[in-house]
Design goal:
The protein is an alpha+beta fold and 409 residues long. It has five domains: 80 residues, Alpha-Beta Plaits; 67 residues, membrane protein fhac (Ubiquitin-like (UB roll)); 73 residues, no CATH class; 59 residues; 66 residues, no CATH class. It contains ten helices and 23 strands. The chain has a five-stranded antiparallel sheet with strand order 11-9-15-22-21, with helices on one face. Strands 16, 17, 18, 19 and 20 form a five-stranded antiparallel sheet that branches. A four-stranded antiparallel sheet has the order 2-3-1-4. A hairpin with a 4-residue loop joins strand 19 and strand 20. Helix 2 packs antiparallel against helix 4. The longest helix has 20 residues.
């Protein structure tokens, strides 16, 4: 196959041989390394194929054998280009076609979103469109790192984003998560401090020096268990101070401030009744979506699953029926928003109880403020204290007073 392609690119000839000694002619060609192939004899006429450069060296062989090699057909790219060079329109169209194919290969024809759960593909596609990322954009204008950072900032519940360009397709993979705060094993000397105001319910110290007891009122930032331990010698004389990793179980009575706002306004859909079909071409594991400019300038949504499928030599072609809608501003009912805020509150309660927080009472009310419904109030809770603060050198380093120090005070 490779040899045939090389012959076609270089060009070759179909030759008809006439004369009294065609066998001698072929033998001399072989001795002179003039390559011929596909030799066929028909009524004492030999026909074969030959390279152009070898044909130019046949004159002494033909004279010696008294034969006449005549060219019957010229085959290959050089002769094809020579035939069409006078067709200016065809060549211009062919060059324009090559330029168009090259340009189209630089465009993003399909955007694929993977891993979404609570966020729909249409929602993320709309966000990317608002930020200048859409189909038929030049791939060099897509900054994948900036897109990843933008999505993470816009959607707080998306903890991981990966964007990459694969040929003419932009693939966005996301992972939704609440990103709970991980417990970090402390290795450097630290204090245990209060992270909010409250009352100490109980304290059990395993390592360090307790500075509070049950019933004490504390402020945010107060040291509850100090990581500085006094080393005392005979007669209760302080020898030195050692820093350690404070460790213990502390329960604190405190209040959580809660507030969540939901707008009554939302963007609704008024359907125009106009239908259109989106073309999706699947070639092996690649998907190419062909949309008309109308799909980019107006709002469309799928009305069904794939309803038509055709198999071609290039792959499967699927047609997806879509319907047009006009985005209009509407209002939720107050009852629906109250139900939504109630669900959000229950979810918040579940999240903090999973972290070991004990809830005693909930004082949260839902009120309407302008075009917003606001759930606000307090929760009286008991929570474990797990906030640490690094020990400063000035908190434990001191000048040693002994007979070798030269300090008699």
């Amino acid at each position: 196959m490779a040899q045939s392609i090389i012959r076609w690119l270089n060009g070759y000839l179909f030759v008809e041989l006439k004369g009294s000694s065609p066998e001698r002619f072929l033998n001399l060609c072989r001795m002179r390394e003039l390559y011929t192939w596909n030799i066929n004899c028909d009524k004492n006429q030999y026909k074969f194929y030959m390279n152009i450069k070898d044909y130019k060296e046949l004159r002494p062989v033909a004279r010696k054998t008294k034969t006449v090699p005549r060219i019957k057909r010229r085959i290959g790219l050089p002769f094809y280009l020579n035939r069409i060079k006078s067709r200016v329109g065809f060549m211009t169209g062919f060059l324009c076609f090559l330029c168009l194919v090259l340009f189209m290969s630089k465009l993003i024809w399909s955007i694929e979103v993977k891993g979404q759960y609570t966020h729909t593909k249409e929602e993320l596609m709309k966000y990317m469109y608002q930020n200048g990322i859409h189909q038929l954009i030049l791939s060099k204008k897509v900054n994948c790192l900036a897109l990843e950072e933008s999505i993470r900032k816009e959607y707080q519940d998306i903890g991981w984003v990966s964007a990459q360009i694969d040929g003419t397709k932009l693939i966005v993979r996301i992972k939704e998560t609440n990103m709970p705060k991980l417990y970090v094993q402390q290795t450097t000397p630290v204090h245990i401090v209060a992270d909010r105001d409250g009352t100490i319910v109980s304290i059990v110290t395993r390592k360090g020096t307790p500075l509070v007891k049950a019933g004490d009122e504390v402020k945010a930032g107060d040291i509850l268990i100090s990581g500085v331990v006094d080393i005392v010698g005979d007669n209760q004389i302080l020898l030195r101070k050692d820093p350690v990793v404070a460790d213990g179980d502390i329960m604190l009575n405190t209040q959580y401030e809660y507030q969540y706002k939901k707008s009554l306004k939302y963007i609704g859909k008024d359907y125009t009744g106009k239908l259109a079909k989106e073309i999706r071409i699947f070639v092996k594991d690649k998907e190419i979506i062909l949309n008309t400019p109308e799909f980019l300038t107006k709002n469309w949504e799928n009305t069904s699953e794939l309803v038509e499928m055709k198999e071609t030599l290039f792959g499967n072609i699927d047609l997806v029926t879509k319907r047009e809608y006009i985005a209009t501003q509407k209002l939720y009912s107050i009852e629906d928003v109250k139900a939504y805020l109630t669900i959000k509150l229950k979810k918040y309660i579940q999240e903090i109880t999973e972290k070991g927080v004990i809830i005693h009472s909930i004082n949260v009310k839902i009120n309407r403020i302008g075009t917003n419904m606001v759930a606000s109030g307090t929760l009286n809770v008991t929570q474990p204290v797990t906030t640490y603060r690094k020990i400063l050198d000035s908190e434990w380093r001191n000048t040693e007073n002994n007979e070798h120090s030269g300090n008699d005070n």
